[in-house]
């Protein structure tokens, strides 16, 4: 499966009503393959969030180092299963579900590590955990995760027989979640009005963004080789959880037997990994993730609401129209849309 080229129909640098315009307000300075955008006119800019542009996508400097290391050195096993997603799109839920499915014969549901660890500590992240020591891996555990866009995945992954599971979400909900995340996870920046983050997001500036480019890369890959790339939408997962949990299990090579289904194993996985259960666990209410790193974060930051359509509580009609227009321009011609009522 060949890596898709940079998405050709995705121009999202439309006018930003004078608030934030990356082309006009900031002067790019080149440092090798990484574009650093300097502050202009006192406006909020990507570097305020520690963001750097690399291969057409925006990365926090902490993750960018790992991305480049992975591209240069990572050697996958043919049995590896990559859980891929843009941030704020259902990553935590997907990790919990996949981990619970893969380890269900190893752990009783009452002793599953998910009860005492945040899902991000159960599934190692390629550009953070794996690159620290690539030889220190459990060869029997197939799950790895990444936020890397498809076009930036190490060539070794593309050329291997690895399976990829991708989850994405309505960009309106992604944006709202991203804004809340910024306000909570980056207190040194201070409170940032939603309108400011909205302008940046619409221009593609977010962690591992542009969001639409990220989604489109994996969507095209799933169309080209559906036996290797499973493409999931958060909204579908919420609506048809049982059906898609079984599809996920089958795709990653751990299908539920008829006996397991009769005994309620699918429902137990769903209950263990539900937002209601995970968000109320002590570790997820009071624990911390990636301590002693520049991106240390409270575990409860990963559990805000877990609802579909929360954007209706935050976005104006003008915001909805603009984001829907970008989504149609970016994804509509490829047959990918996010279903749902777009009335705020």
TrEMBL record:
<dbReference type="InterPro" id="IPR027417">
    <property type="entry name" value="P-loop_NTPase"/>
</dbReference>
<keyword id="KW-0808">Transferase</keyword>
<feature type="domain" description="Sulfotransferase">
    <location>
        <begin position="79"/>
        <end position="334"/>
    </location>
</feature>
<dbReference type="GO" id="GO:0008146">
    <property type="term" value="F:sulfotransferase activity"/>
</dbReference>
<dbReference type="InterPro" id="IPR000863">
    <property type="entry name" value="Sulfotransferase_dom"/>
</dbReference>
<comment type="similarity">
    <text>Belongs to the sulfotransferase 1 family.</text>
</comment>
<dbReference type="Pfam" id="PF00685">
    <property type="entry name" value="Sulfotransfer_1"/>
</dbReference>
<protein>
    <recommendedName>
        <fullName>Sulfotransferase</fullName>
        <ecNumber>2.8.2.-</ecNumber>
    </recommendedName>
</protein>
């Amino acid at each position: 499966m060949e890596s898709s080229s940079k998405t050709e129909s995705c121009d999202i640098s439309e006018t930003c009503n004078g608030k934030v315009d990356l082309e006009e307000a900031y002067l790019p300075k080149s440092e090798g393959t990484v574009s650093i955008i300097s502050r202009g006119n006192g406006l909020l800019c990507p570097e305020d969030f520690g963001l750097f542009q690399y291969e057409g996508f925006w990365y926090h400097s902490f993750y960018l180092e790992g991305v480049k290391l992975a591209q240069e050195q990572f050697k996958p096993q043919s049995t590896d299963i990559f859980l891929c997603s843009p941030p704020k799109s259902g990553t935590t839920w997907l990790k919990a579900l996949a981990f619970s499915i893969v380890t269900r014969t190893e752990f009783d549901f009452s002793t599953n590590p998910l009860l005492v660890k945040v899902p991000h500590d159960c599934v190692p992240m390629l550009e953070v955990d794996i690159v620290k020591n690539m030889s220190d891996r459990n060869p029997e555990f197939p799950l790895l995760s990444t936020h890397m866009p498809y076009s930036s995945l190490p060539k070794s992954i593309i050329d291997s027989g690895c399976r990829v599971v991708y989850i994405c979400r309505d960009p309106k909900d992604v944006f709202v979640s991203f804004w809340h995340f910024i306000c909570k996870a980056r207190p040194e920046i201070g409170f940032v009005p939603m309108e400011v983050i909205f302008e940046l997001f619409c221009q593609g500036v977010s962690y591992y963004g542009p969001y639409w480019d990220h989604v489109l890369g994996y969507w095209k890959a799933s169309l080209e080789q559906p036996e290797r790339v499973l493409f999931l939408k958060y909204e579908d997962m919420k609506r048809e959880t049982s059906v898609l949990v079984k599809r996920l299990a089958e795709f990653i090579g751990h299908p539920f037997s008829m006996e397991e289904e009769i005994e309620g194993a699918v429902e137990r996985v769903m209950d263990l990994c539900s937002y209601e259960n995970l968000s109320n666990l002590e570790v997820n209410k009071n624990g911390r993730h990636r301590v002693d790193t520049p991106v240390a974060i409270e575990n409860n930051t990963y559990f805000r609401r877990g609802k579909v359509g929360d954007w209706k509580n935050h976005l104006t009609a003008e915001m909805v129209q603009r984001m829907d227009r970008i989504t149609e321009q970016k994804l509509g011609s490829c047959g990918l849309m996010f279903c749902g009522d777009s009335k705020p």
